[in-house]
Amino acid sequence: MKKITMALLIALCGVSMAFAGGAKATDTVTIGAVFPLSGSVAFYGNESRDGALLAIEEINAAGGLLGKRLVLLSEDDEGNAEKTVNAFTKLTTRDKVTFILGSSTSGTTQAMAPLAQRNRVILISPSATNEAVTKAGDYVFRACFIDPFQGVVGADFAYGTLGSRRAAILYDAGADYNTGLAESFRNQFKAIGGQVVADEAYQSGDVDFNAQVTRIRANNPDVVYLPNHYNDVTVQAKQLRDQGVTCALIGGDGWDSLIDNAGDEVLGCYWSSGFASDTTDPKGVAFVTAFRAKYNRTASQFAALGYDAMMLVIDGIKAAGTFDTATVKDAMAKLSGAYVTGNIRFDSARNPIKGAAILEIVRQDGKLANAYKTTVNPK
């Protein structure tokens, strides 16, 4: 009798544990993330991941999403397209995720966008600005503005606000992001009456830009457009100043964290951003406050975009009333509302229609800081 009772208890315990395990699984929904968490652009990825984590924490604290608790499962692609594909494959096959945030740069995002479309996985990038990203299909979204708009913003600001008429461009010819911004700036600056007096390219990995800078200096520009990532701009700005090029420098959102790596050579320079941490917008202020409380640092645009990318997915799921991606993608495409980085609605290619902030690099309290200058909205 004792043996039978003990066997029964063990069996019941096994059923109970299996049920508990099943309940735990069905009460949780995993959202995937593929970001450069190490490597040369790790700042972008870590910021966006932390912004997304904050969004999930807030949703879970408010009771979850459609009765379920959200979990973020992050993979490091190191800014490498092949590793991005590997991370996507792992998340979708082994971990069975159907929603993915990522990646941070255009090239890596483009590597997995067709896979997302083919597998009906909703993919949203916080910061991949190349126009081609969302052309993979209707399962692919982004939270940031696109390169053509950002390049136009830079040209309009240089010509209209700074009064520049002679521009030089120095860009990485081996990267989609850089070439996209360079092209849109070039075309717009010429279209509104400006002259591109020097158009210089380099290859990814270059660290000596003195030959290009010499040619730029010889053409006497009154503005230099550097649509490159902060690690390159840190070197380029110094070499430009060392050779006596004193005019304003302008860049895109790849300049985020430049002030943490550069010196006084970037003072008085400007860049277009998806978010200004000194915003006075109530949603923006609440986000900046919450981010600082959680991470003890100021939120960058990549953190804000990561947060918004996560919230766009969440709002799409809420609107759809289901986690079925075919239904959610249609609901996401119809979203329109106020987010941390501004009012967002999607165009027909699932690109957000939103403004760009222009930030000026200034000195505050003895150190470099980004100060909000103006906002340029879509026309």
CATH class of the largest domain: Alpha Beta
CATH architectural type of the largest domain: 3-Layer(aba) Sandwich
Strand order, sheet with most strands = 7-6-8-9-10-14-15
The overall pLDDT average reads: 92
Helix-strand makeup class: alpha/beta
Apparent shape: globular
Intertermini distance: 83 Å
Radius of gyration: 23 Å
Q: CATH topology of the largest domain, anyone?
A: Rossmann fold
Task: Please explain how this structure is put together.
It is a single chain. By secondary structure, this protein is α/β, with parallel strands linked by helices. It folds into two domains: 24-144 and 280-346, Response regulator (Rossmann fold, 3-Layer(aba) Sandwich); 148-273 and 358-376, 3-Layer(aba) Sandwich (Rossmann fold). The protein has helices at 2-26, 42-61, 81-94, 106-118, 147-161, 176-191, 210-218, 230-242, 282-295, 301-320, 325-333; strands spanning 28-35, 69-76, 99-102, 122-125, 140-142, 166-172, 195-202, 223-226, 248-251, 270-273, 336-339, 342-346, 352-353, 356-364, 367-376. A hairpin with a 2-residue loop joins β14 (356-364) and β15 (367-376). α2 packs across α10. It is globular. The termini are far apart.
Name the features.
379 residues, 5-stranded parallel β-sheet, Rossmann fold, 15 strands, single chain, 7-stranded mixed β-sheet, 11 helices, alpha/beta
